[in-house]
């Protein structure tokens, strides 16, 4: 997993500040132009066009502190080194074409031609949502690089705030303002979409009172950034950075989508359900490979993924061993099979490092035993130190920054050799990568390719590539062409898959499988006020298969092609038993969040040395395998309130890139739930609640569920499904079930609520 390099771009922000009209206040009726739909109300200052009011009518809650609003709901950025506009539009006018729509226009104060900004804000007829459009005219040679809109300033502290963001699988940031005040440093959270923001969704809320729904309805995957800025004075500003094509021949710009701002009461699950209502109607879901049964038939049947690295003896026999122990299909997610050193000599993957003949024989023999392999190849990086970089003249086809430079970056701390992203929109890279996939799948007999960094998006400013410069949707369009080209070359299309790092709605129709690592977030990010949540699962679980975790019982491996002097002595040896509970936690999260389980760096000796943990994993995957209607094909639902005790566990933060120091594990403490839960509705209308205990003690489970909340009939039966049994627990009537049972130590089960036929 990697983080994209920062672009070496500096912006000159043109912040337009207008003084209040003398003697007037924002509260006077004549100074505010407003629209409302009976759900929400928006108010704009008449003299300036500032957004000074956003209120929920039902709760009478006002989200904006008008005294904290200093600027307009839009900002323009020009690129560094280019001239700023001489005149800015300051004269504002309003029109109401209908009761739910407000058009706002900013023109030149002296009536001359020049920059003009036109905004249109409309309210939903039935929901507490507003839709925001902007158009910038008279751009001429202004070199406008970004259009920030809407800019929602002065957002009040909601109290006990939580910020949910669709960062691939999902992140929940608790009390973000309190952390900023504590650190006495302003903080800006910025995510790119499509990219690290897997959906156009963020939500800031107090789950006991009110919340703000931030979204967008882009169906064509134009690049944009979502930002929330907290300052030390408790002020908050939200904005979307829209990125027009960087071309001074373009006189006007209007995004091909709307920003969405709304009010709601609830939590991140509430926001996810709001978004799902829109999301599953879009093209990516209609063309979902999983939903349309276009994935290889073995993929949904996968019981466990083994994520091992190196030559085949370190990978395939271990997967076969685990399959024999677990009795479910096991497949391999395979790094470091390739000829080149990891993270510096891409894409010189072929032939396999152990030799082509050995590799083919090993892969074929494993497949005959039911174990299939997908192999690692980065989806766009090329090493600038490789022979092929020069011999194949790759540099003209790599992505460029606005000043014509590459995004070159050294991930490999042992060699410090750089790699740089190729432009996904170029036929050169599409043909190069598709040719590699052709060889790997058709000749070397792999069952698929894992495309690292797939769900990412770069802005490219190279005029020779033939796409819009900077802004646009050429990256996703190029990725779609790439995957189509790969599949056109695959001989056995029904048995091969393409997987990718991350998750993203715009990739659902292109990839078969998504690696989402947030179940093991602590291993790469340590402990903070950010928690992983299954936000993506709550929206798209039944449209996209997810897997992946750094969850491991051993120290990290070390690539044999890296410098030997940095190789740690403890590589792939068992971690201290202190971290066993962390492994249980990670596997429990994946189970209840509806993911295909993954174990990293599995070795047969663990079945003895870490018997309880491997037995737990096997129990978990066997239970999941009996409940695929919920945990693979089901829709995420809210879990009934269950009183769950917490416990403190040891947490390891580790990496393949800390071998240089000899200390490749950092240790923390964390308080976590003793019982993990996730609720799912199967396609046939039953409800399944997955439960996994990491406690070494028996836990009482006691809760009441109202089945009408899940649109189930009033009568039915409750079963307990485990790895070895499925027993009737009780019946229910009148749409309610009072559940009482004891969860065994480290127990795993699915409670099934089956409607009466």
Helices and strands in order, then pairings?
Elements (H helix, E strand, L loop, with lengths): L10 E4 L17 E5 L3 E6 L5 E6 L4 E2 L12 E5 L11 E8 L2 E7 L8 E8 L5 E9 L6 E9 L9 E6 L3 E4 L1 H8 L3 E7 L3 E9 L5 E6 L7 E7 L5 E7 L16 E6 L3 H12 L3 H4 L17 E6 L6 H11 L3 E6 L20 H13 L4 E6 L2 E3 L3 H5 L27 E3 L5 H17 L4 E5 L21 H16 L7 E5 L11 E3 L5 H5 L4 E3 L2 H6 L4 E3 L32 H13 L5 E3 L5 H4 L1 H15 L2 H4 L3 E3 L8 E9 L10 E9 L1 E7 L5 E7 L5 E8 L9 E6 L4 E7 L3 E8 L4 E8 L2
Parallel strand pairs: 20-21, 20-30, 21-22, 22-25, 25-26, 26-27, 27-29
Antiparallel strand pairs: 1-6, 2-3, 3-4, 4-5, 6-11, 7-8, 8-9, 9-10, 10-19, 11-18, 12-13, 12-15, 13-28, 14-17, 15-16, 16-19, 17-18, 23-24, 31-34, 32-33, 34-35, 35-40, 36-39, 37-38, 37-40
Provide a descriptive summary of the structure in words.
This protein is an alpha+beta fold and 757 residues long. Among the domains are: 11-279, Distorted Sandwich (Beta-galactosidase, Chain A, domain 5), CATH 2.70.98; 665-755, Sandwich (Immunoglobulin-like). It is built from 14 helices and 40 strands. The strands form eight sheets. A ten-stranded antiparallel beta sheet has the order 7-8-9-10-19-16-15-12-13-28, with helices on one face. An eight-stranded parallel beta sheet has the order 29-27-26-25-22-21-20-30. A six-stranded antiparallel beta sheet has the order 1-6-11-18-17-14. Strand 37 and strand 38 form a beta hairpin. Helix 7 (427-443) packs parallel to helix 8 and helix 11 (580-592) packs parallel to helix 13. The longest helix has 17 residues, at 427-443. The radius of gyration is 27 Å and the shape is globular. The two termini are 47 Å apart. Residues 1-29 have low confidence and may be disordered.
